[in-house]
């Protein structure tokens, strides 16, 4: 799920004249941590395995419990045996160059690894990432973790998994969204003890996966952590979860199509929910989410042409029910405590659903999606599957739902799934809801592998669905144009003039300068190089797509270069 978005600062354009004034700190910065890149050497990795201890000696087998600094790559696995990889990125928080200030709002964080070139390196998946709750070293073993499950959330040795990857190919980069974990590190809610990649327990894969280590020969193909953050006071994060911190605005319904065909279904029977025949009614049923205390299964529809004895079933017999969830968060915007400001745009928003643990069948290997709902509903008069539009169930073609906002593929027991619903929530906040009215969201699937999630009536409040909202002014959310120092929508000589007149100062260059490494907070030659690279670009055109300057424009660049030389010698 790609969740990266650009943030830039609101700046007051300083006159390119005598008075050089200090500006506020940049509102968005992206930093990356990868051994051997930009001088960073702070990451370590270690494989821990259920078969990693030699039965004869009682000591770790170095050919299994591998240390990343000693090998180019290593294999991870599920239950045949269980092999996890531990990763630590040290020295990422602080006030130094290329560090993240503690307390910063994390806008996006991606942890990526590369599938190695070893034989059979690829995997069919799925593998997941979680945060570690205690530190590790290069001598840590699988057996050092309580419960005999390695670093696993049910043993209290890791957080719940927060993201996963499916099938991979040799040489491909696999990226995990770890925004929530890095935010907890920044906020001090969780110590930065590192990350773990695991196949999980319960419904896990046994298809191994080989990935490059932190000492791989090509440093650009090593494990990498890339983080976008802001220290702007205008940005704020609010979380809405039924029964937590006084919030009571979440409604949910589980809608079940039913599964039994009528005695003599017609050839025109709906393939998902049997049409009434001879007075018979569909056996669909719905449940108020507040009454579901131990998880509810979602599922996708499928016909069952044959019974268990191989005999032909009546037309329309359902083999897998269509079961979906409806969810809506009210009272999100306002001026009250814990509300997101109604007059500030939504920069990012997620609906977080948690995979339940009450059944061994809770995990799903198939895809589920989230869409804006275009049909009205409530929990007083529960909507039935047969009551949606002209065709029972939810179809985009029937006007029931809108475009897919986000989707996931595969989870293990306890996994949190972060669905990106930014466009839906911002439209609702702005008074222009998708579909014309805000009826909430629907979570559905077209596959037949059921997924058990926690509903808003679960006895464990911490796993009830939650809405996470990042609010930020539109001037911060709008993408900046690199090199456009005067923010007029084009990179031209006007930007060069502003750079020249503020060289060596702390002028912000309207948030469109180079803020990486030693260039952060100062106007220097790195800003000039950025301007030169993007000369001629306009808003909405990336450098890769910008037209090459015409000869006259090139002449202007040459003139600008001459001005730089003149400034240096006078």
From TrEMBL:
Signal peptide: 1-27
Keywords annotated in UniProt: Signal
DNA damage is among the record's keywords: no
InterPro entries given in the database record: EF_Hand_1_Ca_BS (IPR018247), Ice-binding_C (IPR013424)
Domain of life assignment: Bacteria
Limits of the Ice-binding protein C-terminal domain: 547-568
Short name of any one Pfam family annotated for the protein: PEP-CTERM
Protein name: Ice-binding protein C-terminal domain-containing protein
Native organism: Aeoliella mucimassa
